[in-house]
Amino acid sequence: MSENRKQPFSKAEKLIGGGVLLIVLSIIIPVWVTVESDRREAMTRADLDMLVSASERFFFDYGYWPSPHMGTAGDVRYGREAGNELVMNILRAIDGPGNEGHRLNPDRIEYVDVGYRGRGRSGVTETGRFVDPWGSPYQIVLDTDMNNVCTMTQTIYRNQTGVGVVAWSFGSDRRSDTDRDILSWAN
Ligand SMILES: [Ca+2]
Questions:
Q1: What per-residue confidence (pLDDT) applies to 4?
Q2: How remote is the CA of residue 64 from the centroid of ligand 1, in Å?
Q3: How far is the CA of 3 from the centre of ligand 1 (A)?
Q4: What spacing in Å lies between the alpha carbon of 118 and ligand 1's midpoint?
Q5: What is the domain extent for residue 124?
Q6: For each successive 10 residues of the chain (187 residues), what is the average pLDDT?
Q7: CA of 143 to the centre of ligand 1 (A)
Q8: What does the CA dihedral 99, 161, 123, 54 come to, rounded to 10 degrees?
Q9: Ligand 1 mean position to 151 CA, how many Å?
Q10: Rg of the Cα trace of the chain?
Q11: 30: CA distance to ligand 1 center in Å?
């Protein structure tokens, strides 16, 4: 009897306990994954709204888009050939690439307030690149040739008429042009 007292759980009890634990985990883990992916998607949508509205406010104030490439035909896509830090430095009023000496945002207005990126959290890198919660740079197209069309290059997405800025995230698969992409516009 003293032997039994030293064993708080019998083998059968341990098996049952382990089974219950597995069942609980099998419920909790998928719920957590869904909650986490919903959280990241909501964060991404908020970032995209912020990028578009900040760019529009910038245009309203200055009469040009937050880009060092104004006048470039065919528009410029940031996040791919050109880093999006060129746009972000202008919108964040930072003296750096794209906005050297505050030349494009001379009033030094902070149109966006973005923190540093973290695990599962969007934000700017040390070089000022704005990345989504999965770590991929946000894609931004600005109407640099001012023809009221955002010309989309090297992507499945159509040119967007009547807007000066569009932005998108690669989403959870970290690849562009897939159904996981999160778009600032209704495709
Ligand atoms: Ca254009």
A1: 53
A2: 12
A3: 82
A4: 34
A5: 2-183
A6: 66 90 92 93 98 98 97 92 96 98 98 96 97 97 96 93 96 95 92
A7: 4
A8: 60
A9: 5
A10: 24
A11: 43
Q: What is the pLDDT of residue 8?
A: 81
pLDDT of residue 3: 53
| pLDDT confidence of residue 124 | 98
Give the tens place of pLDDT for each residue, 114-148.
Answer: 999 999 999 999 999 999 999 999 999 999 999 99
Distance of CA 149 from the midpoint of ligand 1 (Å) = 4
Domains held by the chain: number? 1
